[in-house]
Specification:
Blueprint lengths: L2 E2 L16 E6 L2 H21 L4 E5 L6 H14 L6 E5 L1 E4 L9 H8 L11 E2 L10 H14 L5 E4 L21 E4 L2 H11 L8 E4 L2 H5 L3 E6 L5 H9 L17 E6 L8 H4 L4
Parallel strand pairs: 2-11, 3-4, 3-7, 4-6, 7-10, 10-11
Antiparallel strand pairs: 1-2, 5-9, 8-9
Bound molecules: 2-phosphoglycolic acid (PGA).
């Protein structure tokens, strides 16, 4: 059974009457990913039945790959259509060419978009090729476009070891919007395996802001592995602080963490209730 977070953390934590944060501890990453994919699939179908669009906020990194694999399977084997789906990706390195091996355009094409029937014009990923001077206007337009499509129905998130969501690194405040940011050193270290050397890892990125993320109607955050256990515990049970941008999710009305055993290891049992 899932449980709503009830035990107040030391400071600032929303009370059990206002918190919309729940935590599921699942058998493994596959189970967690299938659960989120099923939720996304049913949201898309619901909206299609009402002749409405479904707006998804999407994430990259190793964590959401199984969700995309499951969505592709649902498309192929269960006829799930993405014709009414509009997507906004959280972030992109800057600068980066869309065909670079590490670009998030390439990642999304390879893991999802090339295998489903999404309308390409409905796909939005921050551009890594715009002129530096054009970035602020571009970022404002990105947030405005999200709002004008009706806002994000479901935002998929991972969490970085720095506590980042998107590329909102430590120091990002709750009111931040889409913008150009500096990557944290730990985040750049985690990206070395993709870029083949620290000197090749970009220093900057464009990311949706914390506030841009908090505007989403539902947020589903996946975290797997023991290397995420400490930051997951601090983001959920610690006080809200810009030192851990993910901690701002504590204020959201419908946010769910889906964790495997290893990532849930440092949480107190009352936070997640029983293992699902
Ligand atoms: P990961 O990254 O999925 O590769 O662990 C998560 C994140 O940085 O949000």
């Amino acid at each position: 059974m899932s449980s709503t977070l009830e035990s107040p953390a030391p400071f600032n934590h929303p009370s059990k009457h206002t918190s919309g944060l729940s935590v599921l501890r699942l058998a493994d990453a596959g189970e967690a990913s299938k659960r989120v994919a099923r939720e996304i699939g049913s949201l898309i179908r619901h909206r299609a039945a009402e002749h409405r669009n479904c707006v998804l906020g999407l994430a990259t990194g190793s964590t959401p790959i199984r969700v995309y694999r499951e969505l592709v399977r649902m498309h192929r084997e269960e006829g799930l259509s993405f014709h009414n789906v509009v997507t906004f990706n959280l972030d992109e390195y800057f600068p980066i060419k869309p065909d670079a091996a590490q670009s998030y355009v390439r990642f999304m094409n390879e893991h999802l978009f090339d295998h489903i029937d999404i309308v390409r014009a409905n796909v939005h990923i921050p551009k890594g090729t715009i002129e530096l001077e054009a970035v602020p206007g571009y970022c404002r337009d990105y947030d405005e476009l999200i709002a004008s499509t009706g806002g994000i129905d479901l935002q998929l998130l991972g969490i970085g070891r720095t506590g980042h969501i998107g590329f909102n690194e430590p120091g990002a405040t709750k009111d931040t919007r889409t913008r150009l940011v500096k990557l944290d050193n730990l985040t750049r270290l985690d990206a070395v395996k993709d870029f083949g050397g620290m000197e090749h890892v970009p220093l900057l990125a464009i990311t949706m802001g914390v506030d841009s993320i908090l505007q989403s109607r539902r947020i589903r955050l996946l975290a797997f592995g023991e290397h995420k256990a400490d930051i997951v515990q601090r983001a959920i049970e610690g006080r809200m602080t810009s030192t851990i941008p993910a901690s701002f999710l504590q204020t959201h009305r419908d946010v769910q963490y889906l964790l495997d055993d290893a990532a849930a290891e440092c949480l107190s049992q009352s936070t997640y209730g029983e293992t699902v």
